[in-house]
Amino acid sequence: MFPFGDVNDFNIGMNQEHELFRKSIRQFCEDKLSPIIMEVERTNDIPQNVIDDAKNLGLTGIGIPQEYGGQGGDMRMLVIMSEEISRVLPSFGTMLLVNHLFVDPLIVFGTEDQKSKYVVPVATGKALAAHASTEPGAGSDVAGISTTARKSESGWVLNGRKAFITNADRADFFIASARTSPANPQSRWKGLSTFIVEKGFSGVEIGHKFDVIGLRGEQPNEVIFNDVAVPEENLVGKLDEGFKVVVTTYDYSRILIAAQAVGIAQAAFEMAFNYSTQRKAFEKPLASFEGIAFKISDMLMELEASRLLTYWAAYLADSKRPEFYMASSIAKTYSTETAEKMASLTIKIHGGAGVDRDTGVERLLRDSVITTIYEGANDIQRLTVFRSLLRMISKNLEVS
Ligand SMILES: Cc1cc2nc3c(=O)[nH]c(=O)nc-3n(C[C@H](O)[C@H](O)[C@H](O)COP(=O)(O)OP(=O)(O)OC[C@H]3O[C@@H](n4cnc5c(N)ncnc54)[C@H](O)[C@@H]3O)c2cc1C
Q: Which residues 6+ apart lie within 8 Å of 235 measured at CB?
């Protein structure tokens, strides 16, 4: 079983509560999201009334403890939500789940005051949040940022420019990383800190909106901090230990990106299968040709493997097992690359109709490519898998 211990390490732990939740999310997606897919593609905007519907249904509170205004629920529920929403409209999932890139670090590292002031409004849907780490000069290299926080009498003064920030134009609150001590070449990850910044703080500017190929409806923006005064009580976690805050957040959130990819792959599979049974060529359905049937079967195999890896990572996270770091990187990498491959195959199975924007097929490819990049590009995940493996070996797990 190396590097795992025994067969029990491969549970996924889904139960009837998870299935009932899945059915209710499916209903929401079919009722509210399916009808607006092409409108969102065209306008590149998600209608506010649909966002309000999600808030009213309590979807902003899933996975957030009830004591902080949330609905409770575990990582498996969040995974189900991400998968089901992304099967229909992945950008809506991104918009909703980016809240967790703000809330989760506060729940783990924040003070009780920070939780009641900032987590509660996000959980209850009164506010929306964003996570500002990436910069024009540093994405994968979290420690390479150049935004600074300078000590002032009452707190900190932030200066810098963040790039590709999802929800920036809608968000009320940001969690932002900044350098608080000079980088030491031997330990560059030290000396970063994370802060809660309100959009209303003087000097916060929402800059250029990126025109990225996919996730139409939720395009990221630049966020610029010009001498932004942040009170001392908005420091999240310990001073100079912000690197840990940021990467711990991604350990959890990349499972949701794996789930997003499973949702896109599911949509691709359904489209490919349906088209192959309905479309005729040479007087027969496409599916009657082995070349097409083999492709459909391969897609199903890889879809279910992705789903199992993702549910497994979520279960390990829910079970507080340290192996979840590795499992979440495995699930993210495998599922996102599967979704990209399946989206491409689905286009080919549709022939010309596959590249006609009006059929809604090619958007799957544009959306899936992004999942291989954000929340830690896949090559970074491969590094994480290998480093986790080395850590497991150093804990005396034997090859058997
Ligand atoms: C639609 C969208 C939304 C986003 N939303 C947010 C957000 O809300 N908040 C936020 O902070 N960021 C966000 N991002 C940014 C995203 O997280 C980064 O784009 C991502 O982390 C990659 O960073 P980068 O673009 O700087 O690429 P780079 O870090 O420059 O990497 C470029 C390539 O080099 C590879 N690479 C880099 N280092 C290594 C290495 N050591 N070994 C092997 N390969 C390596 C990478 O895998 C990648 O393929 C978003 C991005 C997109 C596209």
A: 155, 156, 193, 194, 195
Domain 244-394: CATH superfamily is: Butyryl-CoA Dehydrogenase, subunit A, domain 3 (1.20.140.10)
Question: pLDDT tens for residues 272-294?
Answer: 999 999 999 999 999 999 999 99
Pairing of strands 204-209, 192-198: unpaired
The helix/strand/coil state of 45 is coil
139 CB near ligand 1 (under 6 Å) = yes
The answer to whether the Cα torsion of 371, 352, 266, 4 is positive or negative is negative
| Ligand 1 contact via 165 beta carbon (within 6 Å) | yes
129-241 and 244-394 in the same fold = no
Where along the chain do its domains lie?
Answer: 7-123, 129-241, 244-394
In this predicted structure, what is the pLDDT of residue 392?
86
| 3-class DSSP assignment, residue 157 | strand
- Say yes or no to pLDDT of 400 above 90: no
Q: Ligand 1 within 6 A of 259 CB?
A: no
pLDDT at 396: 54
Distance of CA 282 to the CA centre of its chain: 43
Between CA 107 and CA 46 the distance in angstroms is 28
Whether residue 56 is predicted with pLDDT greater than 90 in this model: the reply is yes
Question: Please, what's the b/e burial string for 45-55 (b: 16 or more CB within 10 A of its CB; e: otherwise)?
Answer: ebeeebbeebb
> Element (H or E) spanning 81, and its range?
helix 75-88
Tell me what pLDDT residue 236 has.
98
CATH topology of domain 129-241: Butyryl-CoA Dehydrogenase, subunit A; domain 2 (2.40.110)
pLDDT tens column, 297-336: 999 999 999 999 999 999 999 999 989 999 999 999 999 9
Give distance in angstroms: CA of 399 to centre of ligand 1: 34
Question: Which of 98, 194, 250, 374 is the pocket-test mutation for ligand 1 (most atoms within 8 Å of CB)?
Answer: 374
Answer yes or no: is the C-beta of 134 below 6 A from any ligand 1 atom. Answer: yes
CATH topology of domain 7-123: Butyryl-Coa Dehydrogenase, subunit A; domain 1 (1.10.540)
